[in-house]
């Protein structure tokens, strides 16, 4: 299995006291992500599954990538990907976390927990 990790596009500034999870993408970042997604497709990257956290900026990013692939596959919301807001010791390194490399085991555990009813996931680091 090949795992691609994509950070969400740039989001609007949070309003004072506003809900961070509700921040949406800026119009400029949507344009840039459409271009990046088209580039991924042109490079021949293929996805069996597109997973996203429930945060607005992450789901918008996933939808933009999926649209470049004619929504096949459509994005699937995986609540465990937003856990960095709840438990930093178990937080997967996705979304706004710029230090992804050191959190690979946490991501693997989180994904396996969320998807254990569906099918087993196996990971090989460094592949």
Structural write-up:
The chain is mostly helical. The chain has a single domain (20-115), classed as 3-Layer(aba) Sandwich (Rossmann fold). Helices cover 32% and strands 5% of the residues. The protein has 3 helices and 2 strands. The protein has helices spanning 27-42, 56-68, 104-115; strands at residues 50-52, 75-77. It has a two-stranded parallel ribbon. Strand 1 (50-52), helix 2 and strand 2 (75-77) form a beta-alpha-beta unit. Helix 1 crosses helix 2. The longest helix is centred in the first third of the chain and has 16 residues, at 27-42. The model is unreliable at 85-103 and 114-127 (pLDDT under 50).
Going by CATH, what is the homologous superfamily?
A: Phosphoglycerate mutase-like
The strand count comes to 2
Q: Residue ranges: pLDDT <50 for 5 or more in a row?
A: 85-103, 114-127
Q: What is the annotated CATH architecture?
A: 3-Layer(aba) Sandwich
Q: Roughly how much helix do the residues carry, as a percent range?
A: 25-40%
**Tally of individual helices:** 3
Number of domains: 1
Biggest sheet details: 2 strands, parallel
Rg over C-alpha atoms, rounded to the nearest angstrom: 15 Å
